[in-house]
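Entry type: protein chain
Record version: 2
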Amino acid sequence: MTVRWMNYLWQEPHPATPDEIVALEHEWGVQLPDEYKRTISTRQGMTPEFPVFDVDQGTDVFNALLTIHEEEKWQEYSVSRVFEVLKPHVPTGIFPFADTPGGQYICFDYRNTPAQPTIILVTVEMDIYPIANSFSEFLEKLHD
C-alpha cells in the first residue's frame, strides 16, 4: 500500500535537505533507512491518511513525522529535541522519527540490527514495544 500523506504542521511541504539528513546521520552515528530518507525528504511534519498501527498492547496512532529541519515554532516535533528528551531514559541505539497523540514516540531501534533498524514504540512510561521489522514494513502496516 502506498501511504498518502497530509499536511499537519505546515500548509505547504517543508522538504528536509540532503545536507540536513546527512547531518542527522552524523549526529546519531547511524545510517538511516533509505525509505525513511526518501520519505523525510518530502514529508517531514506530515501525517499519514491512515495513521493506525498495531502494537502488542492494541493499536496506536501515528500523529506526525518528526522534523529534521529545526523551526522555533515546532520544536516539540524536532527529532533532535525529542532524542535529547528520550536519551536519558531509553537504551543506546533508539532514535525517534514520529510521535503519537498520546505523547509516545515511534522510533528506530538499532540495538540488535545496526544495518536495518526495527521499529518500536516508546511509551510515556518509557516501556518499549516492537511494531515492525523495518521502516518500510511499518508503513505497509498502517491502516484506518
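Comment: Residues 5-141 form a domain with the SMI1/KNR4-like fold (CATH 3.40.1580.10).
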